[in-house]
From TrEMBL:
Name of the protein: phosphoribosylformylglycinamidine cyclo-ligase
Natural source organism: Lolium multiflorum (Italian ryegrass)
Domain called PurM-like N-terminal: residue spans: 107-216
Domain of life from the UniProt record: Eukaryota
Gene3D superfamilies (alphabetical): PurM-like C-terminal domain, PurM-like, N-terminal domain
Length: 394
């Protein structure tokens, strides 16, 4: 998300505020980079200005300190990935079962699948554009899409909304978006907490986090264990940037000299402002993917969030398997082309930061691939499983 913040499954909301209001339930592209590590990311910003190509690291997020080409690096921006990696190593010693998109908890004949996330610095653009309802959808999407990768159906969602001074009208817009997101996911908003923390946030700003729980029968859980060489990767289209990479997005926007109200360049003749393109809510894949799963052939699922293709796809593979990605096999959205051109961002950096127009990847058997692509249209055959490690772009 954010880049999905450090420790995707372990982070928790900020400490309980002095004043809190409890809400009741509401109804209503050519490189081969190694990967396979647990996902680590930090959401922050950088004030450094450089003329060479931008990277996500320059925006304050270090996904991999070893990946440096020309231009800026994450480390130059003041973010030390080694510290984050060390923290993950220590926590994995305490909780060695952590590492998937969602946490599985056995309960009778089912697994309960848990996920928590936020929206990250995309919120900064919400404050600038005044678009607040779509970030509620983003909040739900980031957690329910993670739950979905286990084949689980989301059941319930709770949220945490924190601000220095509560603006009821603004908060209502955000929560309306959360309710909308829950409807799209087929679950319910079952409550949450609104924290009023004077002096903690800038005036008119707020932060969000959310938690979702879903369930899947134990004999139907999707865990990637049956993935073999030759299986096919199918990509489902995204709506845009979704909720990841916005520290870099904001740096590119600053460098472009354009405003959020300007028209997005190179947008195939469509009249869409930069703000509208960037604030497009994250696609919620639940209903579509559960329907695909019900017909068989799906062996693994990867939600393309922080870390992009390069870090997320290998997370679902058994040891010794990797992915070959056919660049040019899907439609890269104009917003990504604009970001890359203005920021002079390397191809490898783009593929490791953004979803590039594909928000969910399905690993399916050869026999099921054609049927799934036809029925899920639009869907793209974006690659295949190979021997080796990591993701290779051809």
């Amino acid at each position: 998300m954010t880049a999905d913040r450090i420790l995707h499954l372990l982070r928790s909301p900020v400490a309980s505020p002095a004043a809190a209001h409890r809400r009741g339930p509401l109804r209503p592209q050519r490189v081969g980079l190694p990967s396979g590590k647990r996902h680590v990311a930090v959401a922050c910003s950088s004030s450094t200005e450089e003329e060479d190509g931008m990277t996500y690291k320059d925006a304050g997020v270090d996904i991999d300190a070893d990946t440096e080409e020309d231009g800026m690096t994450y480390k130059d921006a003041g973010v030390d990935i080694d510290a984050g990696t060390e923290l993950v190593r220590r926590i994995r010693k305490m909780a060695p079962w952590i590492g998937g998109f969602g946490g599985l908890l056995a309960h009778k004949d089912d697994y309960l699948v848990l996920s928590t996330d936020g929206v990250g610095t995309k919120l900064k653009l919400a404050f600038e554009t005044g678009i607040h309802d779509t970030v509620g959808i983003d909040l739900v999407a980031m957690s329910v899409n993670d739950i979905l990768t286990s084949g689980a159906k989301p059941l319930a969602f709770t949220d945490y909304y924190a601000t220095s001074k509560l603006d009821v009208d603004l908060a209502e817009k955000v929560i309306n978006g959360i309710v909308d997101g829950c409807k799209q996911a087929g679950c319910r908003l079952e409550g949450g907490e609104t924290a009023e923390m004077p002096g903690f946030y800038a005036e008119g700003e707020y932060d969000l986090s959310g938690f979702a729980v879903g369930a899947v029968e134990k004999d139907k859980v999707i865990d990637g264990k049956n993935i073999v060489e030759g299986d096919i990767l199918i990509g489902l289209p995204s709506s845009g940037v979704h909720s990841n990479g916005f520290s870099l997005v904001r740096r590119v926007l600053d460098k472009s000299g354009l405003s959020l109200s300007d028209q997005l360049p190179g947008n195939d003749g469509k009249t869409t402002t930069i703000g509208e393109a960037l604030m497009a809510p994250t696609t919620i894949y639940v209903k579509q993917v559960l329907e695909i799963i019900s017909k068989g052939g799906v062996k693994g699922l990867a939600h393309i969030t922080g870390g992009g293709f390069t870090d997320n796809i290998p997370r679902v593979f058994p040891k010794g398997l990797g992915a070959k990605i056919f660049t040019g096999s899907w439609k890269v959205l104009p917003v990504f082309n604009w970001l890359q051109q203005v920021g002079k961002i390397e191809d490898s950096e783009m593929m490791r930061t953004f979803n590039m127009g594909v928000g969910m990847v399905l690993v399916v058997s050869k026999e099921a691939a054609d049927r799934i692509i036809e029925e899920a249209s639009p869907a793209y055959r974006i690659g295949e499983v190979i021997q080796g490690n990591g993701v290779h772009y051809v």
